[in-house]
Structure formats: structure tokens, C-alpha cells
Amino acid sequence: MISPAAIQSIMKKHNISCRKSLGQNFLIDNNIIRKIIELAELTKSDLVVEIGPGLGSLTREIAHSVGKVMAIEIDRGLFKALNELLAGLENVNIILGDALKTDFDRLVEEKTGGEYGRTGKAYKLMANLPYYITSPILMHLLHNHFNISVIVVMIQLEVAERLVATPGTKAYGALSLAVQYFTKPEILFRVPRTVFYPRPGVDSAVVRLLVRKEPVAIVQDEDLLFNIIRSTFGMRRKTLLNALTRSSLGIERETCLIGLKRAGIDPGRRAETLTLGEFVSLAENIVKDNS
Ligand code: SAM
């Protein structure tokens, strides 16, 4: 186990410190790490991409269970320390980079000579995600249709609840819909804040997002669907008709009304009451009026 004292001594040796701005809260409990590994159902033929390996406590255990690990760390100081800490692990490739700017398919394609990636085999993604970029990272992974089969990540509990939220609840929003469109999300278990160093101000949860092989619904214009979702939730207290008309989508009020009618949706309803199926139907029935 990597104790707070061990973390401090590694940091001192490498002349670095914990950077709160990069969401650096390190896992210090081996039982939690073991549980994550067990529930991820890893095999020796897997390639796992890890975001933010930090000091490598999760990376090391993943590496023992799979064929290959590619770990992307943004912090140069941690990157250097990690290369030393994981030096004996032949199947780990540590990459210095920003996960938000990474084309994951291209990266694994390059590093595996095309065995994994866009036209190769699917890979898995794991992380104890930095809280400050949880949603942008998930959106980056899903909207780009990377060839990922499953995502197992630790995130803030409150965000985990949003991923699995259903219509009519407070947690339901644009993030729930995007995640449920691309994946089947599940909260695996809750994690108390006490298992991190430094200790964060919130509890966490480990979630599994099983990426759908087939889309949950056929939609001609995926961008339009998510623009509608974002704009209507951006004005969640307004009726759908008012939110759509006032949004930056540039769709005439009459066109919105016709679209809602065709989709069989009452224009007086609010975004938070619509199911994913209803949003899809709305996107299919609304026509952009660019004339
Ligand atoms: N995996 C380690 C663990 O569980 O102990 C560290 C997890 S810590 C919550 C998040 C890690 O992500 C940190 O190492 C941080 O430097 C890194 N990180 C933050 N932003 C990143 C980004 N945009 N791309 C890659 N890594 C990032």
C-alpha cells in the first residue's frame, strides 16, 4: 500500500507537491484498488488505457491483470516519478499528455501497430478521474466514438448519480442523457473520502459504463440531438417550446412547434420530463430552418 508518508517522501525526492488544480487525490487503500480490478473483469488479452496514473497505485495492479497498459499523465513531475516507480513493469507505457486532447484510437493504434484502435480491437479505459474534468473527459471519450468497450472510473458520487439518473429527478440532465445514449451506466460501489490522500471534500463512486455496440436509437443528426438536449436543459425551468425558440439553434418557433407535435410531445413540458427516446424523436422531427 502507498501510505501518505510514502507519497510525501516520493514527492520530496522528486521535488514536487500535490497539485489540487489537477485533481491530485491519490488512492491509499489497497482493498478499494483490488475491488476495482476485480469488478473490471480484466483478462490477459486486454489493453487498458489509464487516465491520470498519478503515483501508479492503480496502474501497477491493472498491469498485473492485463496484457498492456497505456497510462496518460499530464503532470511532468509525476510522469518522471512514475517512470522510476514502475520501472520493472514491462507491459506499462507511460505517456506525458493531456487526456482531453488525446485521440485515444490513434494513440493505441500507433503504440500497438494497429492491433488495437479504430480499425483494430477494442480496448478498455480505467481511471481515478480528476474531479475538475470528469464531465469533459467522459464527453470527449463518448462523442468521439473511440473504440472503447468499457469504461471503469472512479468519480465524484454526486456525478455518478447524475450518470444513472432518470427523468423527473433532480440529478437528471444533459450528462445523464449523453452517457445513457452511448453506454449502459452502472454504479458499482461507493467510496468514502477517507481512502484518498490528500482527502477530498466529497465522497466518490466507481462506475462502469458499458459502451453500446449498437446505438440505443438511430438518429440522423447526433449533433442536433445533443444541441437540443443542451439548450433545453440550459433553460430547464422554461417550457420546451420557449427553450427551443430562445436557444442558439436558430430554429423558428413554428418549426419547433411542428417538430414537437410530430414527435407527440406537449410543447408545455419541460426538458427534465423527457425520456431519451422522446429527445431522439424530437431531433428526428425538428427541421433546422436555415432559410
Ligand atoms: N490514479 C492515481 C490514483 O488513483 O492514486 C491518481 C488519481 S488523481 C485523482 C488524478 C490524476 O490525473 C493525477 O495524477 C493528475 O495529475 C492527472 N490528471 C489531471 N488532469 C489530467 C489530464 N487532463 N490528462 C491526464 N492526466 C490528468
**Strand arrangement in the largest pleated sheet:** 4-3-2-5-6-9-7
Helix/strand class: alpha/beta
Q: In sequence order, what are the helices and strands, one letter per element?
A: HEHEHEHEHEHEHHEEEHHHH
Count of the domains: 2
CATH superfamily placement of the largest domain:
Vaccinia Virus protein VP39
Brief description of this entry?
This protein is about 40% helix and about 20% strand. It is of the alpha/beta class and about 290 residues long. The chain has two domains: about 5-210, Vaccinia Virus protein VP39 (Rossmann fold, 3-Layer(aba) Sandwich), CATH 3.40.50; about 220-290, Orthogonal Bundle (Helicase, Ruva Protein, domain 3).
Keywords:
alpha/beta, 291 residues, Helicase, Ruva Protein, domain 3, binds S-adenosylmethionine, two-stranded antiparallel sheet, 18% strand, seven-stranded mixed sheet, 12 helices
Explain the layout of strands and helices.
Layout: H1 4-13, E1 26-27, H2 30-39, E2 47-51, H3 57-65, E3 68-73, H4 76-85, E4 92-96, H5 104-112, E5 123-128, H6 134-143, E6 148-156, H7 157-163, H8 174-182, E7 183-191, E8 196-197, E9 204-211, H9 222-234, H10 240-246, H11 253-262, H12 276-285
Parallel strand pairs: 2-3, 2-5, 3-4, 5-6
Antiparallel strand pairs: 1-8, 6-9, 7-9
S-adenosylmethionine is lined by residues 22-27, 51-54, 57-58, 72-75, 78, 98-100, 128, 130, 133.
